[in-house]
C-alpha cells in the first residue's frame, strides 16, 4: 500500500504530505483546485518523464517521495534481482533539479527511469479517465481470464516446456541451414575425397618415390662408385682395412714402452671394425641397387598421379595432401552427423510440442469454463453502474500455432446498446477497443478489476475521475464496487460524485489558497463534520440546503 506521498515544489504545490489509509481513500475538490496536479506528481515516481516547467520555484529542486509498505513477492524479487535493499517499507523518490536534470531513487539507491517504471508497475495500478489502452489489449484480456481461471502455475509450467520447445526449434533450424550449406558442396567434396582415398598415398610416399626414381635412374653410376669404394676398402693390393689392421698390430707391440700407446691401439682397432662394417654395408647397398625398367615405369606412373593431386590441391608435400583428405573426411562425416542430429532434434521437438500442447489444452479448458460466469458477472456489474444495455462477450479461438501463453487467442467483444432478447446475435458484437467510449471503458475496467481482485493480489489501485459522465444510482453503485474492492486492496480515487465520496474510509479535500501573495494547492484530511459539509456542497452547491446536509448524513451513514 501507499502509506505516504510527499510533494514539494511541483506546479502550484509548495509542499504537501498525504498519509493514506489502507482501504478506500477518496480525493475531492473544486475543478481546477489541483487534483490533476497530484496525479501528475504521482506519475513522476511511477517513472514518467519530467519537465522543468513543473518547477513552482525555479531556484529550488522539485521533490516527490512515496513510501510504500509491501510484502508482494514480485516486488521482493525485483529488488533482489536489482541488488536493492529489500525491506517491508519501500521508499521511491524522484528529484528534478533547476537545470532540468532528473534523478530517481529506490531506497536511496540511484536507479534508471526504466527500473523505476518496472518497479512502479508492480506497486501501483493507475487508471485515468481516458487511460483505457490496457482494457483493449489482448494480453490484458488474457491475463484477466487466466487470473479468474487460476492458471498461474499451469502457465509457468507450460512456458518452461514451450521455451525449451522453441530453443530446440532454433537449434533444428540452425542444423538444417548448416546441412543445406554442406549439401551444396557434399558431392564435390565426396569426389575429391574418393579420389584421394583411391590414390591411397601413405605418409611421405611421394617424396620417397621421388628419391627411389632418382636412385634407380642412376643405378649404373652408383654401383660403379660403390664397387670402387668397396675395392679400396677390402680388395685392392693394399686394402685400407688390412692396412689399418697392420698398423694396429705394430702399435700394439709398443704398448709396454709407453702408457699412452694402449689407448691409441684400441682406437685403431675400433676404426678397423668400423671400416669393415662400412665395407660390408657398401657391398650390401651395391647388391640392392638394380636398374629395373619396369619398376621405374611403375614408379613414374605413381609419381605422376601424386604430382597431379599436389597441383590440383595447391600443395607441395604428401603430408599436406593427407591433411586435405582428413579435412574432407571430417566434412563428409559432419554431413552424416548433421542428419543424425536433425533426426534427434525433430524427435525432441515433437515430444516437447506434444507436452506443451497437452498443458495448453488444459489451460484452454480452464479458460473456457470461466467465460460464461465471467460474462454474466461483468454484465450484471455493468447494469449496476448504469449501463443496462451494455454486454461484454469473450471470444476465444484456437490459434494456428502455440504461443507463449498457450493455444488461444482471446478477444473481448462489446455492444453498448444490445436490445433485449437477442443477446446471442454475435453479429452485433465488435472488438472492445473499436467500439467502447472512454466512459464505458472506465466503468467496464472498474467492473473487471473488482472481479479479478478476488482472485489475485493487485497493487495499489488508483482511479482518476473514471466516474465522469455518471450520476445518481449509477454513481452510487460505482461507489459500492469501490468500497467492496477496498476491503482487500488499497484504493485511491479522485471523484466529483458525492455518492462515491460518501463511501470513503478516508476523505481528502484539495483546495487552493493564497500564501504570501502566491496561489498554492493544499490538501487536508476531512473529519466527520467536514465530510458532511463537503458532500452536501457536492450535492447542492456552495451554499448547501438543510436537505442537502440531511442527504449527505444519510449517504455517509449508509
TrEMBL record:
SUPFAM superfamilies: P-loop containing nucleoside triphosphate hydrolases. One of its GO terms (biological process) is SOS response. Keywords: ATP-binding, Coiled coil, DNA damage, DNA repair, Nucleotide-binding. Gene3D superfamilies: P-loop containing nucleotide triphosphate hydrolases. One of its GO terms (cellular component) is bacterial nucleoid. The keyword DNA damage applies. InterPro entries: DNA_recomb/repair_RecN, P-loop_NTPase, RecF/RecN/SMC_N. It holds the Pfam family SMC_N. Residues 155-185 form a coiled coil. Residues 1-512 form the RecF/RecN/SMC N-terminal domain. One of its GO terms (molecular function) is ATP binding. Belongs to the RecN family. May be involved in recombinational repair of damaged DNA. This is DNA repair protein RecN. The lineage of its organism: Bacteria, Pseudomonadati, Bacteroidota, Chitinophagia, Chitinophagales. The gene is recN.
Amino acid at each position: 500500500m501507499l502509506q505516504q506521498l510527499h510533494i514539494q515544489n511541483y506546479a502550484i504545490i509548495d509542499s504537501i504530505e498525504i498519509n493514506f489509509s489502507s482501504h478506500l481513500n477518496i480525493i475531492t475538490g473544486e475543478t481546477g483546485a489541483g487534483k490533476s496536479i497530484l496525479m501528475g506528481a504521482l506519475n513522476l515516481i511511477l517513472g514518467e518523464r519530467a519537465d522543468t516547467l513543473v518547477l513552482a520555484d525555479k531556484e529550488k529542486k522539485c521533490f516527490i517521495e512515496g513510501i510504500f509498505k509491501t510484502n508482494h513477492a514480485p516486488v521482493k524479487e525485483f529488488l533482489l534481482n536489482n541488488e536493492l535493499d529489500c525491506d517491508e517499507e519501500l521508499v521511491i523518490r524522484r528529484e528534478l533539479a533547476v537545470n532540468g536534470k532528473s534523478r530517481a531513487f529506490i531506497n536511496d539507491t540511484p536507479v534508471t527511469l526504466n527500473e523505476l517504471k518496472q518497479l512502479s508497475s508492480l506497486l501501483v495500478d493507475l487508471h485515468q479517465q481516458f487511460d483505457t489502452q490496457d482494457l483493449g489489449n489482448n494480453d490484458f484480456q488474457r491475463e484477466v481470464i487466466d487470473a479468474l481461471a487460476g492458471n498461474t502455475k499451469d502457465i509457468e509450467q507450460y512456458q518452461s516446456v514451450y521455451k525449451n520447445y522453441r530453443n530446440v526449434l532454433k537449434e533444428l533450424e540452425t542444423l538444417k541451414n548448416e546441412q543445406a550449406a554442406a549439401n551444396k558442396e557434399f558431392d564435390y567434396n565426396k569426389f575429391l575425397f574418393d579420389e584421394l582415398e583411391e590414390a591411397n598415398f601413405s605418409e611421405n610416399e611421394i617424396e620417397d618415390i621421388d628419391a627411389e626414381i632418382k636412385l634407380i635412374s642412376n643405378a649404373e653410376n652408383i654401383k660403379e662408385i660403390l664397387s670402387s669404394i668397396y675395392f679400396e676398402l677390402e680388395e685392392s693390393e693394399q686394402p685400407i682395412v688390412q692396412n689399418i689392421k697392420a698398423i694396429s698390430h705394430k702399435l700394439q707391440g709398443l704398448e709396454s714402452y709407453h702408457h699412452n700407446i694402449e689407448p691409441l691401439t684400441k682406437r685403431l682397432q675400433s676404426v678397423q671394425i668400423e671400416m669393415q662394417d662400412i665395407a660390408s654395408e657398401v657391398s650390401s647397398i651395391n647388391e640392392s641397387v638394380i636398374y629395373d625398367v619396369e619398376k621405374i615405369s611403375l614408379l613414374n606412373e605413381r609419381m605422376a598421379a601424386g604430382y597431379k593431386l599436389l597441383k590440383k590441391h595447391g600443395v607441395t608435400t604428401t603430408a599436406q595432401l593427407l591433411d586435405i583428405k582428413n579435412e574432407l573426411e571430417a566434412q563428409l562425416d559432419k554431413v552424416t552427423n548433421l542428419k543424425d542430429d536433425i533426426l534427434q532434434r525433430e524427435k525432441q521437438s515433437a515430444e516437447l510440442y506434444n507436452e506443451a500442447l497437452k498443458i495448453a489444452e488444459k489451460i484452454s479448458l480452464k479458460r473456457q469454463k470461466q467465460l460464461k460466469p465471467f460474462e454474466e458477472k461483468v454484465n450484471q456489474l455493468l447494469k449496476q453502474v448504469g449501463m443496462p444495455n451494455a454486454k461484454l462477450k469473450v471470444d476465444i479461438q484456437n490459434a494456428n500455432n502455440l504461443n507463449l501463453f498457450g493455444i488461444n487467442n482471446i478477444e473481448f467483444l462489446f455492444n453498448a446498446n444490445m436490445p433485449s432478447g437477442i443477446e446471442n446475435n454475435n453479429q452485433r458484437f465488435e472488438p472492445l477497443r473499436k467500439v467502447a467510449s472512454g466512459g464505458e471503458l472506465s466503468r467496464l475496467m472498474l467492473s473487471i478489476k473488482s472481479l479479478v481482485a478476488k482472485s489475485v493480489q493487485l497493487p495499489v489501485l488508483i482511479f482518476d475521475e473514471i466516474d465522469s459522465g455518471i450520476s445518481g444510482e449509477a454513481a452510487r453503485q460505482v461507489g459500492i464496487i469501490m468500497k467492496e474492492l477496498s476491503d482487500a486492496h488499497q484504493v485511491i480515487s479522485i471523484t466529483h460524485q458525492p455518492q462515491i465520496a460518501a463511501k470513503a474510509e478516508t476523505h481528502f479535500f484539495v483546495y487552493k489558497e493564497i500564501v504570501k501573495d502566491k496561489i498554492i494547492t493544499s490538501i487536508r484530511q476531512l473529519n466527520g463534520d467536514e465530510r458532511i459539509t463537503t458532500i452536501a456542497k457536492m450535492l447542492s452547491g456552495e451554499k448547501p440546503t438543510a436537505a442537502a446536509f440531511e442527504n449527505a448524513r444519510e449517504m455517509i451513514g449508509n
